[in-house]
Amino acid sequence: MEMNNQPIIQVKNLCVDIKTDEGTLTPVRGVDFEIRPGETLGLVGESGCGKSLTSKAILAINQKKCVSSGEILFRDDKEDTVDILTLDPRGKQIRDIRGRQISMIFQEPMVAFSPMYTIGNQINECTRLHITKDKKESKRITLEMMKKVGIANAEKRYDQYPHEFSGGMLQRALIAMALVCKPRLLIADEPTTALDVTIQAQILELMKELQKELGMAILFITHDLGTVAKMCDRVAVMYLGKIVETGTAREIYKNPQHPYTRGLMGSVHKIGTLKADRLFSIEGTVPLALNLGPGCGFYDRCLDRIEGVCDKADPALTCLGGEHCVACHKCRKEGV
Amino acid sequence: MEASATKAEPRRNPFSSPMARFIYKRVLTFIPIMLIMSLLIFIIIQLPPGDYLTTYIAGLKAEGQVVEEAEIAMLKEQFGLDQPWYVQYFKWIWNIITDFNFGYSFDFGRPVWPVIAEVLPMTIAVSLITMLFGYLVGIPLGIYSAVRQYSLGDYVLTFIGFLGMAMPNFLFAILLMYGTYIWTGTAFIGLYTEEILLAVNSGAMQWYHVLVHPDFWARMTIPILVMGTDGLCGTLRSMRAQMLDELGCQYVLAARAKGVSEARIIYKYCLRAALNPTVSGLSGMLSKIFNGSTISAIVLNLQIMGPRLYDALKAQDMYLAGTILLVMGFLIVLGTLLSDIVLAWLDPRIRFEGRSAD
Ligand SMILES: Nc1ncnc2c1ncn2[C@@H]1O[C@H](COP(=O)(O)OP(=O)(O)OP(=O)(O)O)[C@@H](O)[C@H]1O
Ligand SMILES: [Mg+2]
What we know:
The complex is a heterodimer of chains A (336) and B (358). Chain A is globular. In chain A, helix 4 crosses helix 5 (135-148), helix 5 crosses helix 7 (167-179) and helix 7 (167-179) runs parallel beside helix 8. Helix content of chain A is 34%, strand content 23%. Chain A is built from 12 helices and 12 strands. In chain A, the strands form 2 sheets. In chain A, strands 6-7-8-3-9-10-12-11 form an 8-stranded mixed β-sheet, sandwiched between helices. Chain B has 358 residues and is an all-alpha fold. Chain B has 2 domains: 26-118 and 304-350, no CATH class; 120-303, Orthogonal Bundle (MetI-like fold), CATH 1.10.3720. Helices cover 76% and strands 1% of the residues of chain B. Chain B has helices at residues 2-8, 18-28, 30-46, 52-62, 69-79, 85-99, 112-147, 152-166, 169-184, 194-201, 207-211, 214-247, 250-258, 262-281, 285-291, 295-299, 305-314, 318-346, 348-353; strands at 104-105, 110-111. The complex binds adenosine-5'-triphosphate (ATP) and magnesium ion (MG). Magnesium ion binds at residues 51-52, 189 of chain A.
């Protein structure tokens, strides 16, 4: 379907700084990636590595104390490219992008809806904001989307409150809210972590179907490698606020290069199934992104570290050929 | 009450809605609560040793007057003070229910109700004005403080908020009166200037004439500030805390991600949720409107209900004190009911609570 395979979004050297009492945290330290139309990019990494901050930076909805820098180039529906970071985060232009061109599914459906209003009201708000002010027409569109995501009895459900929904149903409603305006890019921030396994599978299936139908690109954030294998075309592995390896899903699985990625894969293969959902089996923990040294962020936990090299300079992301890039001194040496 | 039910659930039949059932249940509990409360009030008023007559006669004797036993007995019989307390209680309640007769004020020598009624309009006016002042200023300032957290304005408001809550009202009243006296040379004491007082006593002016008199408003300034600041600071603090809680919620982020504007997020989502404790606070409001504040009113020499209750309790004028307390209790129960209804309307989760029990 893509005559035009230019990326829909390009994130270049994205940094997010947070001012705290102890000093300035830099949880996101120069992230680069791009997503093409209709493609799914998986963003994988341990808890706290900066995935959510990155995704919220794309919509410019981080808190005020989180300062983003770099470039987020978004190609909008008029084929104009805007740098989202230059827009006023409360302004009209970004609000027109949010919900209509880029939308987001949140991690916990239970708290993503206000308990004060009906589900229909909250989904319909998006429709009325971006598609039509006509009450009947917008309700029709909303109901259609609710049916499409598999909410049975949509007319009745429309008038119910969040507390009358089950977790799985709420996640469907959240997906309906994100998709009702047929966005060009969907950010799914761990959309299934709060759900049980059978529901997870249903929701993932649903997202794939809708993607095929609407042709949108997806940024799929997760720490479940099994899900990545099912959902994603390409994968970006994130560690301590940086992308350490990217490539097609096949390459990353078959031929992981970065020691961190290998660790992740190892932790999956050791258990012998792709269903292992958490990645805690690498020794040590992610350090706090405060006063980091000049070297590689993974140095302390790395099994292949080269003393005198890896603790002196942070490796840049270098391509090994094709789509496969990695940020590691050792891999570069061996690769060349 | 059905009107609010229909408003909350426009699409449903009001009689079958959870809201209507909710209200119906709450109204049913009203009657036993009132009866128990009236009994408690009566018992408590009876608790201090002696009664109005003993105090009164002691007063007369102290002035050197001779009071004959026969006369005392006659008075006792006339006031029914010779009967056991439960007989007095049942007579009191019976007369209220059948006749809307709240008994006799010994101190004023008149039936209780007119004694209350004469200060009622001004009490309600003063209380309503101070309360409106508290809410109308406190709620927006609280919202501002939360939305601009850690700004200079927020720090100033936080400081004022704590100061206002910490300073006793009577002290604030005295400071203000002293200040205005030094400044203007006029003592702003009481609600009426002499001119207004004369006109009121001669019947030339009714209370509603007083309300539109500019001098009255000059006199009202200090009471509004003194009695309103308390409510204002409380509202400001609770509004700020509540709004901050709500603004930190995930659904705010979700709304923002949909493209909803900040202003709409605040008034559609956060404000509605944040009003919750403020609305719960309304339960005591009716009663406060009826009574007004007591100590500040005494300090400021305001002729409203609070000081009248205080005098009645002091003089053991039991039917007057009892009636004022009874009405206050009634208004608290009524206020709680109303605030519950408003809360249920604001928050669907409360509305549905009773459902499974049916
Ligand atoms: N508002 C904030 N104030 C201070 N630190 C923050 C804030 N938000 C995020 N951080 C820090 O930034 C880091 C990255 O946070 P982020 O939410 O992006 O993690 P994540 O990768 O999404 O993790 P998870 O998988 O647990 O969702 C964390 O270490 C966190 O401590
Ligand atoms: Mg996250």
